[in-house]
Amino acid sequence: MDIDTPLLALPLQGRKRVRDANRWIHIAPGEIFLVPHATAVDIENIPDETAGCYTAIGIPLEEHVLSAARQLVREPVGAGSGGIACVPMDTHVEDLTNWVNAMEQRDLARACYSIVGVVLRLYAQGHRSLLYPPAPSLSRRIREMAAADPTREWTSAHLEGDLGVSGATLRRHLAAEGVSLRQLIGDARLSHGLSLLLTTRLPVKSVAVRVGYASVSTFVKRFRERYGVEPSRVGGVGGL
What we know:
Elements: E1 2-3, E2 7-13, E3 15-20, E4 23-27, E5 31-35, E6 39-40, E7 42-46, E8 55-60, H1 63-72, E9 85-88, H2 93-104, H3 108-124, H4 138-148, H5 156-163, H6 167-176, H7 181-199, H8 204-210, H9 216-227
Helix pairs in contact: 1-3, 2-3, 4-7
């Protein structure tokens, strides 16, 4: 799974298993799965044995939240440290409870304030790359651009102008990273679609349109090929 934005995932039923390089990270209810920056990982969501389902809350950490947290950090810090991690929830219960209450009341300002508190506490616990992520590769920059505007008809000419590189340079860098432009754009759209399905209650048809697919059936087919599951089986509970 390609994760395009920092996020928190809180399992409620079942547990999550994530492979990062050569290690497996296990996340159970009462723990937080932290993704401090854009990355690609293998994820397995394991249903609860009694309930027979897996349920989690996903909280994307959007740029306005991270920007607010950066302004409150007084110490100058260079390169970020710390990758994906399983974090005990106990020190974050108050802020997360306040976030849930604010979201239920549709008080987005108070919800943002609560999540900024979570981010600052995570930063203090050593997850520095949450506020100071590593410099992205060219393919990651293209993915982020496509995810930010998935309905745009992205071409090599567009990217050359936006990135300030020649076509030859663009092709050489992507070849060195082992990806094609078509693959990057397609994955970015599907990844953004997955994020919408996980963090909103939008129907599949609306998600398909928002990520640049004129045909819902094509979106469903591509999504199933990419993630091995029908998009209609991915249910969201809302996000920030």
